[in-house]
Amino acid sequence: MAAPNLEDVGSAALFAEMLRRFKCATKGEKRIILVGPPGCGKGTQSPFIKEEYCLCHLATGDMLRNAAIKGTPLGLEVKAAMESGKLVSDDLVVGIIDDALKRPACEKGFILDGFPRTVVQAEKLDAMLARQNQQIDRVLNFAIPDAVLVERVTGRWVHPPSGRSYHTKFAAPKVPGRDDITGEPLIQRKDDNINTLKSRLEAFHKQTSPVIEYYTRKHKVTTLTADSSFSEVSRQIESALQ
């Protein structure tokens, strides 16, 4: 792939990137896994962690879709699996992650979200990192009672065109059912209902609890009180990553 022409990059963007790289030069390497059920706050905290520690954010679902679109050798395998309705193999996912880690943005490490979901996947991930003389530094376990998640998720409403989100209890729109800016109707995502959420929580606990146990035995896990305020959860994360 051809390198970007820097003459076409604005001065402000270049200067901002230089400042970012200067700041990141003093940062230590960190390889982090985020674990938590839907609605636990991982998505809210990820940008803070990425920016503060100069890490790349690897969301496996997005990575697989992008690989399929780009048509890389591994991407073609992903595309074939998706089009045939098969699950993408663990080895293929680990290969996609391995490729992603070669990007300059991942030089200081990464945040891995959505993988591993099973102990077998965790073992394959660890084996791949070991071949590069690397290892997972910290697993952040976003622990939160299921009852809190039900309240968070089932009260969530969104404005599809902009992505703005509201909550009937915590961030209610000025006019019920209407976007504050445009006045257009809000919708509730099809997955934001109690039956779907309970099913997803059951699957999460069944699959992921053994992964947490696996990394606990390696002394890698920090459990966060994820139903605390944003600032308090951020403080817990900073403490865990010192």
TrEMBL record:
GO cellular component: a single term: cytoplasm
A molecular-function term among this protein's GO annotations: AMP kinase activity
Cited InterPro entries: Adenyl_kin_sub (IPR006259), Adenylat/UMP-CMP_kin (IPR000850), Adenylat_kinase_CS (IPR033690), Adenylate_kinase_lid-dom (IPR007862), P-loop_NTPase (IPR027417)
Pfam families: ADK, ADK_lid
Substrates-to-products reaction catalysed: AMP + ATP = 2 ADP
Top EC class for this record: transferase
Gene3D superfamilies reported for this sequence: P-loop containing nucleotide triphosphate hydrolases (3.40.50.300)
CDD domains registered for this protein in UniProt: ADK
Family membership: Belongs to the adenylate kinase family.
This protein's name: adenylate kinase
Listed EC numbers: 2.7.4.3
Function: Catalyzes the reversible transfer of the terminal phosphate group between ATP and AMP. Plays an important role in cellular energy homeostasis and in adenine nucleotide metabolism.
Keywords: Kinase, Nucleotide-binding, Transferase
